[in-house]
Amino acid sequence: MARITSRFDDSNRRVTLAPFPSHPRQRGQALVFSLITVSIIILVMVSMYTMGQQSINKMKLQNTADAAAYSAALAEARDYNFSAYTNRAVVANQVAVAQVVGLTSWARNYGNTYAGPSSWVPKVLSSLGGPMAKIFWDVPWNASKTISKGVKQTFETIGPITTVLLDKLIDVLGLAQTVYHYGTALTVAQTIGLSPAQILDDLAGVDESSLGVVSDLLTFNDAYNIIKLNDVNADLSTPGTVAAMMHIAQWFLFTHKKDPNMLNQDGPAADRMAKVTIDSLDGFSRNRSTKDGGPFKNMPEMMYLTPFVIDPTRLIPYQNGALLMYLWHRGGTELKKVNNTKKTWSAMDGTGFFGAAIFWISVLGIPIPIPIILPFIPMGWGAAQAGLNSNLMPNNNFGTTAANAYGGIYQSPNTAGAAAIQRGKGAGKSLDPAAGLRTYFDVKKVNKPALVGPPLVLEIEKAGNKIPTSNSISGGQFALNNGTQSNYMRSLSKAEIYFSRPKKLWARSDGKTEVGSLYSPYWQARLAPNSFAEQYVSLAFHLN
To answer: Domain span at residue 291?
Structure first.
């Protein structure tokens, strides 16, 4: 029905207007538009929520993979640094063993010099000089004889005890290297969640639930699993499990427990530990000849190990002449090869005596000099060893030539006689038959310089049903697929250990770049970008 409307004009008269037709079908147009708009907005919000959850979980999963890879690489770098520190401690203790062997040899020589079979020679010579000679020579000689006897007895007692204790400490350090190395492998496996149960589940198709109680024994505690600590719903994928196992195998092969007593194990580098140890010896162990080394290397050679260790030169004047006496000393400690394989410590010391006297006699009032010379008489000798019994020949030594062996004792005419006597006697009973170089960890391929260790590539995944989507808030009314491949979200990460000696802090004197080894604790961990090949393998595996 048409609707009639009216209004009043300016003179207050009613005016009837034409009828305005009504259209009931046009009612509610705004409502339809509003519903369509609201639906679009809801779909956009739902999509944004789903995409936001995808982005958040993807970032969280990537951070989890990075944290696990970096933590595992950091544990491996610490293992290499631990081996480097303990190797340095082993070298330091080997040097200490060499010092004890050298001191024992020196003490034996010191005692024999003043109480040995040739000690009567300077006594007789000094008696020719009269009372003055006895005062200037016999008094300090007798005092040194008493001191030398006490020194010799002291080192005869404490030498074997100290050597055994040092060698036991070296054994403890070697055991600590082994325990820490294998413990690190377990730590890495726990850090990335590589438990035996997970391996059986991923690679062998064995359901963990079917293992019963055994599953608990094969599953690591999640309190050490970096993946679970960052995301309880994340795990290693099957390719990630394989890659992690391969990495641990490569990590084990990168370093190796070496035996320095094995012949030609590393070719030219087989004596690496022996050379490092020899290079670390102190001056007293290397050469106890004061002409070439030792604590008084700037003094004349004859000033060492003499009466009062002050002035062995005795130029003693008296009424009818003059008396001249010298004591000469040479000695050193060597790391020797026994049977071409075993490395053992030996030391030898020798002291020679030189005496000269001039007597004036008067014949018809004419003074006539009568010289008496006693050149290079062997006065004292001593030797010691730790390890297998070894000879005292000047060959088969590390770091020295035959001419320089034992401080050049064989090459000097004033000590060659003492050296010959001691060589016939041998080095004596070993201070510790078990002494010598021990096994240690080092980079396996020492002839191939390396600055980077084997990389660790991790792939972790998270099930799609563990990622919140629109289904969780709409009950399925606005369900959207999260778009993950095989209903799993995955992330790749890569970490590596590398060797770098900071040049600004600990620069080398030769300016060269130091390569990776287990003698310097400069191993570090870092994240690295995944290569195209690694990404392609991951993608190809999951597309099948």
So the answer is: 36-444
Count of beta carbons in the 10 Å neighbourhood of residue 308: 12
Give the amino acid at 405.
Answer: A
What is the C-alpha separation between 272 and 214, in angstroms, rounded? 46
Nearest-5° angle of CA 272, CA 275, CA 280?
130
* Rounded Cα gap, residues 193 and 291, in angstroms: 64
- Residue 62's region, left for phi above 0, alpha for psi from -120 to 50, else beta, is alpha
Domain-located, residue 509 = no
Nearest CA to 531 out of 457, 432, 439 is that of 457
Q: What angle (nearest 5°) sits at the alpha carbon of residue 336, between those of residues 331 and 338?
A: 140
Confidence class for position 315, pLDDT limits 50, 70, 90: very low
Name which of 196, 237, 241 is nearest 61 in CA terms.
237
Q: Which residue has the higher pLDDT, 505 or 451?
A: 451
334 beta partners: 346
In a domain, 266, yes or no: yes
Q: DSSP letters along 58-125, please? A: HHHHHHHHHHHHHHHHHHHHHHHHHHHHHHHHHHHHHHHHHHHHHHHHHHHHHHHHHHSTTTHHHHHH
Is pTM, for the whole model, over 0.90? no
The residue with tokens 């490395």 is 343
How confident is the model at residue 139, as a pLDDT?
Answer: 76
Residue 15: pLDDT over 60: no
* Three-state DSSP class for residue 7: strand
Q: Please report the pLDDT score of residue 71 as a whole number.
A: 94
Which band of pLDDT confidence, cut at 50, 70 and 90, is reported for residue 239? confident
| Neighbour tally for 366: CB within 10 Å | 7
- Write the burial class of residue 217 (CB in 10 Å: 0-12 exposed, 13-18 middle, 19+ buried): exposed
Q: Per the structure block, which two tokens stand in for 147? A: 């001191």
Domains held by the chain: number: 1
- What b/e sequence results for 231-255 when a residue is b if at least 16 CB atoms lie within 10 Å of its CB, and e otherwise? bebbbbbbbbbbbbeebbeebeebb
**Strand (E) or helix (H) holding 491:** strand 488-499
390 domain residue, yes or no: yes
> Is residue 534 a part of any domain in this protein?
no
Largest CA distance in the chain: 188
Q: What is the 3-state secondary structure (H, E, C) of 340-405?
A: CCEEEEEEEEEEEEEEEEEEEEEECCEEEEEEEEEEEEEEEEEEEEECCCCCCCCCCECCCCCCCH
Q: Which two tokens stand for residue 110?
A: 């010191």
